[in-house]
Amino acid sequence: MQVDNQTRNNREIERKFLLRQLPDQLKRSRHYVIEQGYLATEPAGRQVRLRKKGKTASLTFKVGRGAHREEREIKLSPKQFAALWPGTAGRRLRKVRYEIPWKNLLIEIDVYRGRHGGLVVAEVEFPDRVTCRKFTPPSWFGREVTGEKRYSNVRLANE
Length: 159
Description:
Elements: E1 2-3, E2 11-19, E3 30-41, E4 47-53, E5 56-63, E6 68-76, H1 78-84, E7 92-102, E8 105-112, E9 120-125, H2 129-134, E10 141-144, H3 153-158
């Protein structure tokens, strides 16, 4: 297993929004099918997630809720992922993620499949708290839902 050094200081700073409409560039954007399941979740916001994004698999440990959380991610081999995946039965979701570059940031648009079909959210991850606070969403963004349990992936996977 290899620890991903891309997560700055093991902190995740992000905001989540519903969308008013899909952006024009969506169909031309890079996108991946994501299969995600949870090995463990606690009411206090601690979770252990398995994710396959395209051909890349990872195990992620998160603590906290809202815009600022601790996060540690470990890359898994396909064999390791396959061995752990059955442990997520009943706590899974599937979505297509589109990546839209925007003003030196990356907007990730998740279009959910299966029982959550029709749900579309955008997440923006920030390098620091100042950039997070100063962020002005594009006009096609709708209501902000950062920290709302109803829109958390762990809640959706457990429904």
